[in-house]
Amino acid sequence: MRIDIISILPELLESPFSHSMMKRAQTKGLLEIHLHQLRQWAVNEYGQVDDYQFGGGAGLVMMCEPLVKGIEQLSHDRTYDEVIYFTPDGKTFDQGLANRLSMKQNLIMICGHYKGIDQRVRDKFVTMEISIGDYVLSGGELAAAVVTDAIGRLLPGVLNDETSALFDSFQDDMLAPPVYTRPEDFRGWKVPEVLLSGNHRLIDEWRQEQAMKRTQEKRPDLLGD
Known about the structure:
Order of helices and strands: EHEEEHEHEHEHEEH
Number of domains: 2
CATH topology of the largest domain: Alpha/beta knot
């Protein structure tokens, strides 16, 4: 998979992609992440990529020309499955969407700033709009990092145990069950006996029951009706 991220602050994304699972995915050649400074397509020698909005109002808007130039240049070399823009009015990102995006080959992500990007870019080039929650960030870089991480860890070969992702929270519309490790007894707080039984059928049943109980208590909205 290849992900191209267009940003006016690409340095914000260097650290999240240089460690842990994202580093492993890239080292194994399973994921390519390319960061692009939007100002390379600026409208003048001063690096301008934003301007005042028509109709007045507070806040600048990211201009058409730099974004369109960037998208068109990248698209000259390959076909992109999605051009994603991070915006509060986008589709709320969840595990199901992460699963679907992880099966794509090429993605462009646009990190907005200020009051957003010129609507014409959204109308003509953006194919998917995503929100990572009902709040406002200073820019789209953190959203791009979140979505890239959620996608990248699902690529076959990234996790040491490829079955691990199948039991993550939200994969089956439920939260994950409690987990324990050594020692078996810590200050009198003991691991549930069933997990020490070696009976995998009983363990699976217990985990399913605990996942349902935890979901009902903490996130009943996931269960619907």
